[in-house]
Write a structure and sequence with these properties.
By secondary structure, the chain is mainly alpha-helical. Among the domains are: 50 residues, no CATH class; 67 residues, no CATH class. Helix content is 55%, strand content 5%. It is built from 15 helices and five strands. The protein has a three-stranded antiparallel β-sheet with strand order 1-2-3. Strand 2 and strand 3 form a beta hairpin. The longest helix has 32 residues.
């Protein structure tokens, strides 16, 4: 009984559970791609990914056998256009296999090491999403499109520019340090200067990454922080930006000005959080490190505080997104909870329309009312997840 009651409580907060699962899943992806080596966080990547993914599948799993396919979205329309009205979709597995073989061939022929790197993981994610696209049931169309667009956007942000730069410079070992030079080191330096921390940005011998020089108060000698790829936060930014773009594309029917503004705000917030992360790391070293600590405090902040700050900042943004912004669709499909504006009287928990004596309705033990036609063949209550109650006398609301 206690387990059933707990399951009912969790079902009532399904959206919160799904949000938590998304954050946990992408936290695990971030840790796997950009592992903070030498810290305990290095071991949390796979557990976060597995647990978060499992909870997300549970939370997003439709209840009832008659769950309809997802409504039209920007992602669905864009995919139809890119696939020649769907004619190329049957070839997705072949495309995925070709991408997989191309990545392995690149590692063997051009890369300095055949070992799988972070970029390889990203490419293989896109290949897997293409291979499995056609076998996902249509009732999971929205989730399927989200995964596909997330993997494609992740490659567009993190892999394609890197390949273009390597091709342009004929240097297949070139890293993404250009991001640190252009969009991270100067901005971090400017914020630190505003906070009264004297610093400078310059090249470092033997490295393609920029170095930020400052003098900790308790140390008395200049310290150079080399902002390499692992320190840049580019992977964290790419993961959030890709997830957010995929979310907007799959949740909205049209790209209105409001949606474009929302998309721009999400990307800017992600970038700002990354700059804030670097500022906090340097401030920890500037104010707390001494000759005795030997910059250990700053290294700890790099391994723990920086990652937590970025994830915390993005979590607040997602929470605000779910709570304050309207959904992208006005039509509510059967089997999904209504998100329409509130109306007077007792409302159907699916279509949002008032209950009347004309249309038969039923009531769940959790207190939710539904038109029987809206509930259809669902075996569980869309509100609490309990098994559908046996047919009783029609219920009406005033």
């Amino acid at each position: 009984m206690r387990l059933a009651a707990l399951a009912a409580i969790v079902a009532q907060h399904r959206r919160t559970i799904v949000l938590t699962a998304i954050l946990t899943t992408f936290g695990g992806v971030a840790l796997l791609l950009d592992r903070p080596e030498g810290s305990v966080l290095e071991w949390f990547g796979l557990p976060f990914l597995v647990v978060g993914g499992a909870v997300f599948v549970w939370g997003a799993w439709p209840h009832g056998k008659a769950a309809p396919p997802s409504p039209p979205s920007v992602a669905a329309r864009l995919l139809r256009r890119l696939t020649w009205d769907g004619r190329l979709v049957p070839f997705f597995p072949a495309f995925g296999a070709a991408i997989f073989l191309a990545d392995l061939g690149y590692n063997v022929a051009l890369s300095a090491t055949p070992a799988l790197q972070a970029e390889d993981t990203i490419v293989l994610l896109a290949a897997a999403s293409l291979v499995g696209y056609g076998i996902v049931p249509s009732r999971f169309a929205r989730e399927r499109d989200f995964v596909l667009w997330f993997s494609l956007c992740l490659n567009a942000i993190l892999v394609v520019p890197l390949l273009a730069a390597r091709t342009y410079y004929s240097d297949f070992e070139r890293s993404v340090d250009v991001y640190s030079w252009v969009a991270l080191a100067p901005q971090t330096s400017a914020v630190l200067s505003l906070l009264g921390v004297s610093n400078s940005v310059q090249a470092v011998a033997g490295s393609t990454a920029p170095g930020l020089t400052f003098t900790p108060q308790g140390l008395g000698i200049p310290v150079v922080v080399v902002i390499t790829t692992a320190c840049s936060g580019i992977y964290s930014f790419g993961i959030f930006a890709s997830a957010f773009v995929a979310f907007v594309l799959t949740e909205y029917d049209t790209m209105s000005r409001r949606v474009w503004a929302l998309l721009g705000l999400g990307l800017f917030t992600s970038y700002l959080a990354n700059v804030l992360r670097m500022v906090v790391i340097v401030l920890v070293g500037y104010y707390t490190d001494t000759a005795e600590t030997d910059l250990q405090n700053m290294l700890i902040a790099h391994s723990y505080a920086g990652w937590l700050i970025f994830l915390g900042w993005i979590s607040l943004f997602w929470i605000g997104l779910f709570r304050l912004l309207p959904r992208g669709r006005e039509e509510v499909q059967p089997g999904r909870l209504a998100t329409a504006p509130r109306r007077s009287g007792t409302l159907c928990g699916i279509c949002g329309e008032p209950l009347t004596p004309v249309v038969p309705a039923t009531r769940c033990t959790c207190g939710s009312f539904f038109h029987r036609t809206c509930l259809g063949g669902a075996e569980r209550c869309p509100s609490c997840g309990r098994p559908r109650p046996s047919e009783a006398a029609p219920s009406t609301g005033g």
